[in-house]
Amino acid sequence: MISFALRMLRHRKAGFAGAFVALLCAAALVTACGMLLDTGLRGGVAPERYAGAPVIVAGDQYVRQAKESGKEKAKLLSERRWVPASLAQDLARVPGVTKVVTEVTFPYAGFTAHGWESAALTPFTLAEGRAPKAADEVVVDARHAGRAIPGHRVVGVTAQALPGQDTIFFATGEARRLAGREGLVTAIGVWPGVEVTVKGAVAYTGDERGAVEFPAAENSRVRLISLGGALGGTSLLVAILVVVGTFALSMQQRRREIALLRAVGALPGQVRRLVGGEALLIGAVAGALGSGAGILLGFWLRSRFVDLGAMPANLRLVVSPFPPIVAVLTTLVAAWVAARVSARRTARIRPVEALGETAMPAAGIPPVRLVAGLLALAGGVVLTIVLSGLNTEAASSPVTMLTALVWTIAVALLGPLVARAVTALPLRAPGVAGYLARKSLRAGTGRLASVIVPLTLMTAMTCTILFVQTTMGHAAQSELSAGVRADHVLGPGASAAAARQVPGVRAVTEVLRTSVRIDLEKYAVQAVTPVGLDRTMDLGVVAGSLDGLGDTSAAISRTAADRLDAGLGDRLRLVLGDGTPAEVRVVAIYARGLGFGDLTLSRELVAGHVDDPRGTVLVSGGDREALHRASGVPVLDGAGTAQVESPNAAVTYVAMGLIIAFCAIAVVNTLAMSTLARSRELALLRVVGTTRRQAARMLRAETLTATVVAVALGSAISLVTLAAFSAGMTGSALPYVPPVAYLAVIAAVAALALVATAVPGRFALSSRPADTLAARE
Amino acid sequence: MTEAVRLDAVSKVYGRGRSAVAALREVSIAIPRGTFTAVMGPSGSGKSTFLHCAAGLDVPSSGSVRLGGTDLAGMDENALTELRRRRIGFVFQAFNLVSALTVTENITLPLMLAGTRVDQGWLREVVRRVGLDGRAGHRPAELSGGQQQRVAIARALVTRPEVVFGDEPTGALDTMTARDVLTLLREVVSGLGQTVVMVTHDPVAASYADNVLFLADGRIVDAMAAPTAEKVAGRMTGLGAWN
Lengths: 777, 243
Fold this sequence. Notes:
The complex is a heterodimer. By secondary structure, chain A is α+β, with helices and mostly antiparallel strands. Chain A is 55% helix and 15% strand. In chain B, β9 and β10 form a beta hairpin. The relative contact order of chain B is 0.19. In chain B, the strands form 2 sheets. A 6-stranded mixed beta sheet of chain B has the order 6-7-8-3-9-10. A 4-stranded antiparallel beta sheet of chain B has the order 2-1-4-5, with helices on one face.
């Protein structure tokens, strides 16, 4: 059967091109996602600053909790965990250890700052000058030779500079003072590379040292796992949907051939094997080529992510044979599943059909498909309800995509019913073309159904992907605009004390953003200075009061209160960003959690537990110019504020953009297949006197009908999904859909559909009709 | 047993209840081995349904169909398919070759599907008899309509079936080519002793047969031995076919 399948493929290349392209894109997407996932799981960062020390002893960068099942769960901390400096002495006593070097790390004016004590970790050596001794003396790296550091004297320049960071060294004592964590150090280097075990710290070797050195890289590595997984899962589902659609269409077009095979003695099982064999062959070739393309796509994605700041440049992309292998296997499985699904149809093709002209089959709906469609509908309803109850982005994002997809699958399964309903509507376009279009849509509801599916998919996915982001952004932004009372916002590094001295300033609030974990769950935190808070922000307090906010209390958002089942006066045990446990009492519950964060803590509690304690400063009153002069940092308007745009949205656009592109390819694919297969019918119309223009208009009218239906369905799907998402995340079931963006999506879908009809239509109409009719199958 | 096919009180009803249409009504007929039978009738007379039921392509609503000594009743689709590919050959109106395969491959397709070895001697004999010498490696698209029909006849013969059924085998051919194909079918019957049953609406085509059955309104209304085109045409006019 396989050799027979191969001959069929060779002979009908055009008929299989659609399925081939769909599978190729699927393989590429899966490979690229697999590479991200692989990098997330196994990727590492080479150490730079710690490269000279064989063993780095530092804090455990995970917060761990034993679950009831006895399994331990670990979550990455958002800030670096420090270790007691006294550990150095314990380490020095370990047999075999010859040298121990301690280090503190903190940000200083755009530099990564340390004490000169830790120069040996890299090792850094002096190219000129001497080591810093006095409090105002510094040494800069080779890249910054000759650069003046305000308030300090540059007494030396190192011979080295690190590729990923700008380094500055203070005198050891001054560095410890500036780091502001008494008795604690960031890391301890140990020589030589012996095995050491220490209580309360972890010994890191090899690339593990890189993970300690670059917590941000570690963070984005972990994010890549969920991103790669979500993207891969979504693209896999989309791929199966698209591939099944393409196969089904090509089966429809091969009815006659299959009927002939059946008539000369092919068993239904043999036809299924033939179709399956063809699918596997296409799958193998498309999978191999697609996974090659996918590796390039993976590198492109990485470079986009690096540009967007979502992935550090030094996080190496893991290139291993696994993603391509998995991609080829999934492509084969997808192709095989698609073939099995469409072969269900071919088994019903009766051999008698080979004996006469077969009419375009009406879009009947077999019971199995009807049941599957209804199940998908039920699944859509369930997922929508579940989604409306999800209030964390981590849980909500993947479910949102899944919900939209399941609704689309329901549409795909029930497509024939939809198509029949549409053609039953008493609508008609004017003119001959309109008349013909109407007749041919009625006659070919199966074809209409198969064209509607990719168009619906594209509309639904695009709208959902775009408007999830706008809904979140809009909700957060409107809470911020409503809640920020400050007139000015000073960028990071501004001195709050200096701002307070500016005439006319009524209140100054320092704001620090970080996160904490409660029961391993992550909560976004804003840490503020409580004095005068009511003059710089209005969190929309619904219970309690912010007056008593101190280092043992917390205000929490209504959403967080629901999640934690916490009320006023309840105690919360939380783990601060660097792993330090803390206990706070809930003194207020507020409404504007999206704009300001799940928890509001006092800055005093948090500042000592973040890597970068500089935050933004909100100022009420005062003059912009004066503030700029006093603080030395850029001053922003209070309204245009506060929250730094996270790279998340941009990353989502890039990643999900691939899925939209895939849907677009599916649209082009399906329309081209469906139009090209009609060259005989078009030739017939031309012979009986239809002009080329009328035939083209008929095609256009049919495509427009399909597009209108698909846009309506797709919009409805994404509206339902977005409403559920919005209800869960923002508390309001009204998603934010910018009309211009929505119109642009519709215009793009319609334009794509029309072009994908017009080009093959022109091709099909280009040959002389008599030739087309004379040509035999 | 001298009958190749026997139908006993075969009826076929399409649809149910009020919209039911009877395509065949209690048709009984025996077709002797080694004969060439033409089935004629006006449009809607049930001749296609007759062919489908006799050939095991369709299952009658009632009555029995026997092929050789085998009763087709109660056979499932797989069993019917296997029976068809071993014991029945088909020639359709037109376009009934797989365009991906060469002439030889098209001819041996039923054997390949059955997993049977090709008898090379018989294959050569069949190819020679249908006049396709030197065309074995061609693809259907490179052949004329008449040649394509010869390939279809060769395919029908290659399994040495008990009956070859033809559904308007000359319907898509011009007069000259049709005559060649009919002569070939006639030779197949006379020279090889093959049984052929052919549905047609063309009196000239029917005149090549040994017997002609006339169907009207789902019943066999007449039969004619040693037909000529004139006699057949006259009988058809009597049935109201060309009114």
